[in-house]
Design a protein that fits this description.
With 144 residues, the protein is mainly alpha-helical. Helix content is 58%, strand content 10%. The chain folds into two domains: 42 residues, no CATH class; 83 residues, no CATH class. Helix 4 crosses helix 6. It starts with a helix and ends with a helix.
């Protein structure tokens, strides 16, 4: 059975248990014991060092807006470019000569050039696909 169909079937089985706390607890216990060896991570909160908090908030806001975030880990500088622009500019960026004045006027092109030429390391964080975002919302609704 292909993986997507198997996952759909498993999710359907899990959803059928949502009104049966005893069965749901048995399944939860089985999954923890069988597949997860690190039992301590559930209670441990993820802490972000103070110097990164503003960057994390800004990046989250940018990702929610559909931006691709480029982060320079050395300086914590962040440049946002819309995903649709990244998809089209990356092709043009690699094919265009360095002295092409028309592309130099494009702010996003200049940002991409700067990232590639001046930043030694880059962390690229892309926004989730719409289906993945929907899955996050669905999971949130189940917690309410």
């Amino acid at each position: 059975m292909p993986t997507p169909h198997r996952l759909d079937e498993i999710l359907q089985m899990i959803r059928s248990l949502k009104d049966n706390p005893e069965s749901l607890e048995k399944l939860h216990q089985f999954l923890r014991e069988e597949f997860f060896t690190d039992q301590g991570t559930e209670d441990e909160a993820i802490t972000v060092p103070k110097q990164y908090l503003p960057l994390v908030k800004e990046a989250a806001d940018s990702l929610n807006a559909g931006m691709v975030c480029y982060i320079n880990p050395a300086t914590l500088e962040k440049i946002d470019i819309p995903r649709s622009v990244v998809d089209t500019l990356l092709w043009d960026f690699e094919e265009t000569a360095d002295n092409d004045e028309e592309d130099e006027e494009n702010l996003f092109y200049a940002d991409l050039r700067r990232i590639r030429q001046e930043w030694e390391n880059t962390i690229t964080v892309e926004p989730p696909e719409s289906s993945e975002s929907f899955s996050y919302m669905e999971q949130f609704v189940f917690t309410l």
